[in-house]
Structure formats: C-alpha cells, structure tokens
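Interim report, section 4.2 (structural modelling).
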Amino acid sequence: MNVKTILAAKGGDVISIEPTADLAAAAQLLSKHRIGAVVILGAGNRLAGILSERDIVRAIAEQGAAALNVPVGQVMTRNVVTCGENDSISELMERMTERKFRHMPVLKGERLIGVISIGDVVKSRVQEIESDAAAMRDYIQTA
Ligand code: AMP
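Predicted structure of the assembly:
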C-alpha cells in the first residue's frame, strides 16, 4: 500500500487558504470541512505552509482571543514535510511519528495532489492487516 492507493480511495481534494486570511477564517474552514489542518498556497499556487488546529490553539494560548485576527502567514509552519505518491504507508507512519505531526501534503513535482492525514494512514493499515488475516484464514482452511 502506498500514498497513491489512499488518494485513489479518498480523492485528491485539497482545502487551502491564503496567507493573508486570519486565524478565525482558518478555524471556520477547519470546522466546515471537519479537518485538522489546512495548506497555505502562495504565489503561483505553490505550497507556502501548513496550519493545523494545534497552531491555532497555541496562538490563542499565547495571545488570547486577539490571535483570531492574526494572519495565517504569521502562524503557519513554513518548513513543510511532504510526501510523494509512491511513498509507502509505513514510511509515512514513521515520518509522522518521528516529526510529531499528523498531516502530509502530497506533491507530484511542484503540484499539490492531495493531503494524507494520520486517520487515512491508520485506516489503510487496519484494512491491510484485516485482509492479511482473511488471506491467512482462507489458507489455513484450505490447506
Ligand atoms: P498536526 O499534528 O498535523 O496537527 O500538526 C502539529 C504541528 O506540526 C503544527 O505546528 C503544524 O503546523 C505542523 N505540521 C503539520 N503537518 C506538517 C508537515 N507535513 N510538515 C511540517 N509541519 C507540519
């Protein structure tokens, strides 16, 4: 199983926001789409950053309600770790665990073709384990 398999099942929709939008707008977007992170696109629709619910919570903890007026560009993580469609799910799990984040944009060349979340990774691992177990049961019954 690789990133391409996950994207084929869930689609390549990418919810994005501009760096000049404020954190209130970002929070509304996360809530509307029931997601935990949004990517920020800059000039030429290039990936400029990622903003997760944790970034919004941290900004509010540090600055209070005024943080909601702060532009996304000031709070987002700029050094975004991305993956490619041929990367394996176990590689993604390792990178997410090591770096302690739960979202990875998928790039094909410069083009953003999807976002994989830890939820997608866990779902795919569970399906893989279940199908291995079913194959093993079939083998035992027919052996
Ligand atoms: P998350 O666990 O994805 O909600 O994010 C935790 C922290 O990691 C936040 O500060 C995010 O901005 C940051 N983050 C999330 N995804 C990535 C990524 N793919 N690359 C770099 N930083 C990220």
